[in-house]
Amino acid sequence: MSDYLDDDIIDFDDSEELVEQIATVIVENREIMPDTPVYRLRLFYSNETFLAAYNGEILENGRMVIVPTRYGRDLSKVMGQIRKGPYFSEMAVIERLATDEDLNKAANNKILEEEAFAICKEKIAAHRLDMKLVSVHYLLEDPKILFFFTADNRVDFRELVKDMVSVFRARIELRQIGIRDEARVLGGLGICGRGYCCHAISDKLKPVSIKMAKDQNLSLNSMKISGPCGRLLCCLSYEHGFYCEQRRSCPQEGMKMSYNGTLWRVLEVNVVLGKIKLVAEDGSQLDVPISSCEKVDGHWRIHKE
């Protein structure tokens, strides 16, 4: 789980541009006042988080609640209270606190999900469908079973659904998800030895580009900058802003600078170590700290510290 889950209250956004007084909004025909506590909740089966309001007792971290989701009413875990931030029109409203009966039912559903997973895999093989089953989830308060799968192309699973309905006697919903979504749902350890960013830190899958790897002076070997999901590492996106900000305060590769009467060309900039590597016309190289570089009249130079 994310490190910020240990805090009692989560900062949604520290931007000064946020309005302190939030207008009343209507969500699902209910009126939510500006002083109504808002919480961030997490769904176990998809690892997604979302905001929900609750006009009752203050909920502590880890409390289980019943809340309407896009698939139906389900069990969700309170991650923390939002200290401040805007209210969204799609924000959910917590219906009630989970009871012991709800928790027991959720535990029983876990067993049913394992059985349904095995049955669905057999049915997929029998229908010879080119798809990979990722997970199964029984909704807590709605007679519906969700099956999440990945596939390279669109899959015609209409016959599979009919077969599954005859077995489970319940509403069946198959949802195709992406490779990165699969990693977020299942979790695991990344090449850094820690949990997947998309699973343990944030459930928001931010766009990642090869330019981010270039800006961070990383090897463009796909094996080194790709995660276990086969896509570019999420951390490239998280750290890109830091590199861009630091590079604005130092010379770029290819620039020429004069130092001790010799003309040097910037060969490499290492913002993590705070050093730049220079090369002279005769091939000699020199490492200098970025702090020794200054820009005067639009030109970079190295001053002696």
What is this structure's SSE topology?
Elements lengths: L8 E2 L14 E3 L2 E3 L5 E5 L6 E5 L10 E5 L4 E10 L9 E2 L2 E2 L2 H28 L4 E7 L5 E7 L7 H11 L2 E6 L2 H8 L10 H4 L9 H6 L6 H4 L8 H14 L8 E4 L2 E9 L4 E6 L4 E5 L3 E4 L2 E4 L3
Parallel strand pairs: 1-7, 5-8, 11-12
Antiparallel strand pairs: 2-3, 4-5, 4-7, 6-7, 6-9, 10-11, 13-14, 14-15, 15-16, 17-18
Helix pairs in contact: 1-2
In words, what does this structure look like?
The chain is of the alpha+beta class and 305 residues long. It folds into 4 domains: 3-98, no CATH class; 102-177, GMP Synthetase, Chain A, domain 3 (2-Layer Sandwich); 181-247, no CATH class; 256-302. Helices cover 25% and strands 29% of the residues. It is built from 7 helices and 18 strands. The chain has helices at residues 100-127, 158-168, 179-186, 197-200, 210-215, 222-225, 234-247; strands at residues 9-10, 25-27, 30-32, 38-42, 49-53, 64-68, 73-82, 92-93, 96-97, 132-138, 144-150, 171-176, 256-259, 262-270, 275-280, 285-289, 293-296, 299-302. Strands 1, 4, 5, 6, 7, 8 and 9 form a 7-stranded mixed beta sheet that branches. A 4-stranded antiparallel beta sheet has the order 13-14-15-16, with no helix packed on it. It has a 3-stranded mixed beta sheet with strand order 10-11-12, with helices on both faces. α1 crosses α2 (158-168). It is elongated and about 85 Å long. The two termini are 45 Å apart. Mean pLDDT is 79; it is low at 1-29.
